[in-house]
Model the fold of this input.
Amino acid sequence: MLSDRHGLPVLDADAYARKLLASGTAASLAVLDRYGPQVQIPGGGLDRRALGRMVFAQPAERRWLEALTHPLVAQAFTRDLARHHQAATVVLVAPLLFEAGLETLCSEVWLVDLDGASQLERLLTRDQLSLHEARQRIQAQWPLAHKRGLADVILKNHGDLVELAQQVELALAKRAP
Done:
């Protein structure tokens, strides 16, 4: 929405993580070295679903993977923020913004907020996870109640995209000089 409707540059942590774990990268080789065929697909790449099931079931393994990827994602953000140094606003999309310590890269934090039931339902639908797997992923994040207290702007995503777009418009208008 911020990119398409407002032309703002958007940097996405999940997109960086996918690139960092692409077949043949140093990070993917480290993952394969640690977990072997359990997370390998034919051709040598990573089976991201298998890796997700493993790390969300074992918090120590999730912490290992985060220790590998979070600094690399932070480096990618820093590199690309420098590329956009002339832009008045650059959007960082980072579901684990606080957990990864990336909020230090931000002058303002917007939280897209929703209730727990909707969060669970959307995760189940989007990622085709079991209820148990979806709950594991939610529990691996800081609670939204905690994040609300750290955000500068809270966008309530309880309704449809039209409502969310209206909130984005209002938040942007408040920022305009």
Remarks:
- The beta strands are 10-12, 91-93, 110-113, 153-156.
- The CA atoms of residues 5 and 165 lie 9 Å apart.
